Amino acid sequence: MEFKKFGLYNIISFTLLAFLTIFFIFPFYWIATGAFKVQDVAIAIPPEWFPMSPTLDNFKSLLVPLTARWFFNSVFVSVATTILVSTTASLAGYALAKKRFPGAGLLFAVFIAAMALPKQVILIPLLQLITDLKLMDTYRALILPAVGWPFGIFLMKQFSHSVPDSLLESADIDGCGEIKKFVNIVLPIVKPGIGALAIFTFISSWNDYFSQLVFTNSETMKTLPLGLASMAQSAEFSLNYGVLMAGALLASLPMIIVFLMFQSFFAQGITVGAVKG
């Protein structure tokens, strides 16, 4: 009886998971196939579920020099933001978790409170600051405001608690400096957390349409999501669904690649602490 119940439970579970997988993957599949369809086929009813006569014309229309610049801007800003956030958050998280200094609890409470603030609340003072520093329409305006990400510090603080105090004490006895101790002991242990944070940061930076819209003025400084949005509003491309799907596919590929690169660390990161031992 227990075996039958277990078998029925597995069948129901796998059926539900298969349905959810198809449900969430289908929009991406539709975009990926639509990117290779001509306009008449892309809007045909009943739809053509798989392109029988695939074409690259949509990508040829999309990949102009300005689009290449937008793609470079997005990659540069997202990669630079990910590196800086991962570095500062891991250092700050380690200090808050393992160092004892006056005001540590209050400082951490400030970070927690900052997580509850929507970005729109600080937009006006942040815009004024960037304007006063003459950073408008520059890479620094798109990168620096995201470096002190409260969520990243919170995440890395929780991971840093998994570093055994005995290892740190042994390093102190051996005369290990703080930098060497952080690099050789702390980083290998919190690596899953850094991998998970890298995914979150890259996706957040890549899709940060609001900040990119406010802090850029020129066409050459636009990022890919912002540029594709403006292209979609133009008369030339507004009704060309094949080109729009090609743009959506191009904009989503870097996020998929980053997730595949860090998925092992991400899987470890979300399961840390689930099992004691």
SSE inventory with pairings:
Layout: H1 2-34, H2 39-42, H3 57-62, H4 65-98, H5 104-115, H6 123-132, H7 139-143, H8 150-160, H9 165-173, H10 178-206, H11 209-215, H12 224-232, H13 241-271
Helix pairs in contact: 1-13, 4-8, 4-10, 4-12, 5-8, 8-10, 10-13, 12-13
Describe the structure.
This protein is mostly helical. 72% of the residues lie in helices and 0% in strands. The chain has 13 helices and no strands. The longest helix is centred in the first third of the chain and has 34 residues. The two termini are 33 Å apart.
Shape: globular
CA(first)-CA(last) distance: 33 Å
Low-confidence stretches: 273-277
Q: Structural class of the helices, strands and pairings?
A: mainly alpha
Let me know the largest β-sheet: none
Overall pLDDT level: 81
Sheet-strand content, in percent, reads under 5%
Share of helix, binned: over 70%
N-to-C SSE string, H for helix and E for strand: HHHHHHHHHHHHH
What's the number of extended β-strand segments?
A: 0
- Helix tally equals 13
What Rg do the Cα atoms give? 24 Å
Quick structural gist:
Helices cover 72% and strands 0% of the residues. It has helices at residues 2-34, 39-42, 57-62, 65-98, 104-115, 123-132, 139-143, 150-160, 165-173, 178-206, 209-215, 224-232, 241-271.
Descriptors for this entry?
single chain, 277 residues, mainly alpha, 13 helices, 72% helix, globular, disordered C terminus
